[in-house]
Design goal:
Number of domains: 1
Number of helices: 4
Shape: globular
Structural class: mainly alpha
Strand content: under 5%
Helix content: 40-55%
Length: 84
């Protein structure tokens, strides 16, 4: 099975699918620190319930995703994880 098909398969099971998906990425306008922290915590709460959290994180790390919450980690948390 190709990587694209494998990715699509786990994405179909992702808890982040749907109308609340916008909490996983920063808005196009300025976001205050407390707003960012609140948005990211909401996203991470959804991630904690997700059955494909690890494949999601693995995917974000493999493509060096620089934005958003993936697999329950922010971009800063993923960078820190990779640095260790």
């Amino acid at each position: 099975m190709s990587t694209a098909l494998q990715t699509e398969k786990w994405q179909l099971k992702a808890a982040c699918r749907g109308p609340h998906a916008e909490v996983f990425f920063p808005p196009p306008t300025f976001e205050r620190k407390n707003e960012k922290e609140y948005r990211e915590e909401r996203a991470k709460e959804i991630c904690r319930t997700c059955v494909v959290r690890q494949p999601c994180l693995d995917y974000a790390v493999s493509i060096k995703e620089q934005h958003g919450i993936w697999g329950g980690l922010s971009e800063a948390e993923r960078r820190k994880m990779l640095a260790s």
